[in-house]
Amino acid sequence: MSRDYSYLIKTLSSWNFEIDDNKISQLDKYYEMLIEKNKVMNLTAITEFDEVLVKHFVDSLSICTIIPDDVKSVCDLGTGAGFPGIPMAIAYPDLQFSLIDSLNKRIKFLQEVVDALGLTNVTLVHGRAEEAGRNKLYREQYDLVVSRAVANISTLSEYCLPLVKVGGYFISFKSGDIEDEIKQSGKAISKLGGKLQKPVLFNLPDTNISRSFLVINKEKSTPKAYPRKAGTPSKEPLN
Question: Homologous superfamily of 71-235 in CATH?
Answer without folding.
Answer: Vaccinia Virus protein VP39 (3.40.50.150)
